[in-house]
Design goal:
By secondary structure, this protein is mostly helical. It has 4 domains: about 60 residues, no CATH class; about 100 residues; about 55 residues; about 170 residues, no CATH class. It is about 85% helix and about 0% strand. It contains 10 helices and no strands. The longest helix has about 70 residues. Keywords: Coiled coil, Signal.
């Protein structure tokens, strides 16, 4: 709009150069050179102190106001000059009217004189010559008057052409300016109405967004309460799990299990060797069947122990103590077998010692069964708690891993 106003101002200027101004950024070959120079020469526009015109810059409202003020001043000056010209023409026409009136009066006087002359001619033939002379003078006067009238007509025509030329120039009147300002004001009102509609639509959208945000906040609050409840449940689960095992305990149990498996493998191997030697020593006394039974019983005890390890990893530490007792009993048995090997025993002595060994094995087996029952009860309790806290899958996975590891160890020892 600012650029359009500037172009309109320049288009309304049609005066000639009053003085030459050279702008460094407006060459003579530029398409707007004449318009810029005319506007500058008329005093409607002016360049910048650095000698540039900056024709591509946007016009500010201040610059537009200054140009319009200069245009109004120029228009007022043109109106004043036009009024002076009209006044002069009016005065000149009035003077010509007076001259014409005087000529008409002269013609009327001449006509009267002609009438008098005719009368005189009728009355006096002598005066005819004088009358002819006056008539000649009158004709000359009329001719001169006709020339003067023709010249006056030409002057009036030239003045009328000059007036039309002035009218043809695109000067902005106050009415035209008021009309354009009224149009601009109407457009501004339309834009304001459109802006009000847009603001109303925006406020409606903002209201919807606020409602959505409130719904989201309600959902977030609900989720927060749910998360808080879950945190409480997890805290309870964590407290329950803390009562059972930690990562360090698990690693310790794995290490103990590995050590226990290795020791039991070694013990089983040594025990097998000793049983073999014992079988050789007792072959004459029919002890092979009893030793097979003892070996089978011990193997069953070992299998029970491995089953206990597979069933619950969290009680392996307690089981380690019991296995230690079993190991001590087996060591005692091994020592007794070594003593039997070193000594020559009778069948009765061997039978007595074997009975004593059977008693110990039965005691160990009974203790192992009690431990198994205790472990089963503990496992049931753990499973119930883990099922309540939805962690049974993880527990089963851990047990499966430990069971697989122990099974692999057992397979390696066989």
């Amino acid at each position: 709009m600012k650029k359009l106003s500037l172009v309109l101002v320049l288009a309304l200027v049609g005066v000639v150069f009053a003085f030459a101004v050279d702008y460094t950024d407006v060459p003579e070959g530029h398409w707007a050179y004449n318009a810029v120079m005319k506007a500058t020469a008329a005093g409607l526009l002016q360049g910048f102190p650095d000698g540039t015109f900056r024709g591509t810059d946007s016009v500010t409202r201040y610059q537009l106001a200054e140009a319009m003020a200069k245009l109004l001043e120029y228009s007022d000056a043109g109106d004043a000059k036009l009024q002076e010209l009209v006044f002069a023409l009016t005065k000149k026409v009035a003077g010509l009217s007076l001259d014409i009136s005087e000529v008409v009066k002269g013609i009327e006087g001449t006509s009267k004189s002609l009438s008098d002359a005719v009368a005189l001619l009728n009355a006096h033939d002598a005066d005819i010559t004088a009358l002819k002379k006056k008539l000649t003078d009158t004709e000359i006067t009329v001719k001169l008057l006709g020339q003067a009238i023709a010249k006056l007509r030409k002057d009036l025509k030239d003045e009328a052409a000059a007036i039309e030329e002035i009218k043809a120039q695109n000067f902005v009147t106050s009415e035209q300016l008021d009309e354009k300002l009224s149009m601009l004001y109407t457009k501004v009102l339309m834009l304001q109405k459109e802006e009000s509609k847009n603001n109303a639509a925006i406020m409606a959208e903002v209201g919807k967004l606020n409602e959505n945000v409130e719904v989201i906040f309600d959902q977030v609050d609900s989720n927060v309460f749910s998360i808080m409840g879950l945190e409480k449940e997890l805290a309870g689960v964590k407290a329950s799990l803390d009562n059972y095992v930690t990562k360090d305990d698990f690693e310790y149990v794995v290490n103990v299990t590995n050590k226990l498996s290795a020791d039991m493998f070694t013990m089983q191997r040594n025990y097998g060797k000793r049983i073999g030697k014992l079988e050789e020593a007792a072959s004459d006394y029919a002890l092979k069947a009893d030793l097979d039974a003892l070996k089978s019983s011990v193997n069953q005890d070992i299998e029970v122990i491995f089953d206990q390890i597979d069933s619950n990893v969290f009680d392996i530490m307690d089981l380690e103590k019991k296995v230690g007792n079993l190991e001590a009993a087996l060591n005692a048995t091994n020592e007794e077998l070594a003593a039997l090997k070193a000594e020559v025993v009778t069948p009765d002595q061997l039978s007595e010692k074997l009975n004593f060994l059977y008693k110990k094995i039965n005691i160990v087996e009974a203790n192992a069964k009690d431990d198994v029952e205790t472990l089963k009860a503990t496992i049931a309790d753990l499973e119930a708690k883990l099922e309540a806290s939805d962690k049974k899958a993880n527990f089963a996975t851990i047990l499966s891993i430990v069971s697989a590891a122990i099974t692999a160890i057992v397979l390696m020892t066989q």
